[in-house]
Structure prediction request, 421 residues.
Amino acid sequence: MPASRGAVIATLSVIVPLAVATLAALFWLWPGGSGGVVPEAGPAPERVTGTIAAITLKPCLEEPPPDGQAAGQQPAPDPATCGDAAVELTGGPQRGESVTVALPSGPGAQVFAAGDAIVLLYTPGDEKLGASPYQISDHDRSLPLGLLGAAFALAVIAFGRWRGVSALAGLAITFVLLLLFVIPAILEGRPPLLVAIIGAAAIMLTVLYLTHGFSVRTSMAVMGTLLSLSLTGVLASVSIGIANLNGITDESSFNLDMSLQINTQGLLLASIIIGSLGVLDDVTVTQAVTVAELAHANPGYTVRQLYRAGARVGRAHIASVINTIILAYAGASLPLLLLISVGRQPLGDIVNTPVIMQEIVRSVVGTIGLIAAVPITTALAAFTATRRAATADHDERDHHRHVPRSARHRRVGNDELTRRP
Prediction:
């Protein structure tokens, strides 16, 4: 059904200024590539690739215990990590040559075998000190990564066809904005919260319209996402202030605060906003499409009827999405949960720790914003859908008014003939 003129004008009056403001802020905050607050570091070792030809195992040497720990308390190293590896270099300045490198050992060291593709760190100055310039760093996962990426792209395109292609293009734009705008801008000292808001708005406008097309229905999803994301940002700011969270909960955030002087509290707010966007656009698009299909199936539905029908679908969707969010957080934090279980601390003390409280605030605020997205988007979509239905019904009546009576009878007769068995 075509959109009414009033719905189109009202939608454009909101979307166009929003797009212009987002584009202007994007150019204003775009990083200049000067490095900003990033400290200058020495030359990094070159990463080269190679293949393990053979491994020679040796007895593991007993290392002295760390300070404050008695001998015999540290875990014994894996015998498969003690020895040397003959590596055929497939990259770097000595490509095609074979070198002997010590296997990485110690607690948590990876186990390598003959035939493994690996990544080595090459430091040219070490051979002057009598040490090997090569050091095994990790497994080379380029081939598995390429296979997984190809399988993912084929599955998306096979099911979604051209819509799947547009979805992959939207995913690429999301990564470009995150890697070229959000992260460099924060590293250059831009306010993390402002960068996250502008980045989220740019991702939302680009990806939703690219994936779902330029329509009033997509615009309702964009407006619902924007309003819900604004509510999420306000709730996150208030919750972080009440809980006295500074965003420093692990070694990474501590290093960012000490070496780069980044506002870690603003970084926490930014992570909540960007993380919420990934789930919000799913809910808002689903609600907008659901209401549009309901209006198409029954053009006689009023705004109230469309809202109630769409809200029932939204409640079922929210119930499953909330469970998905909790399981995702639990799966990502499984090692931490195991450490907490081993410590046998009271539940009140565990919840009061900054790392747990931060995740609670993140999940609760994101869930509230997700719940608010359902009535907001459903109401907007229901209003515009009924306007479209009224326009379509008005056009149909005008068509009947100008069709001769004889033509109407002939059309009815033909329809009846086609319905006969």
Notes: Residues 86 and 100 are 5 Å apart (CA to CA). Residues 354-402 form the longest helix (49 residues).
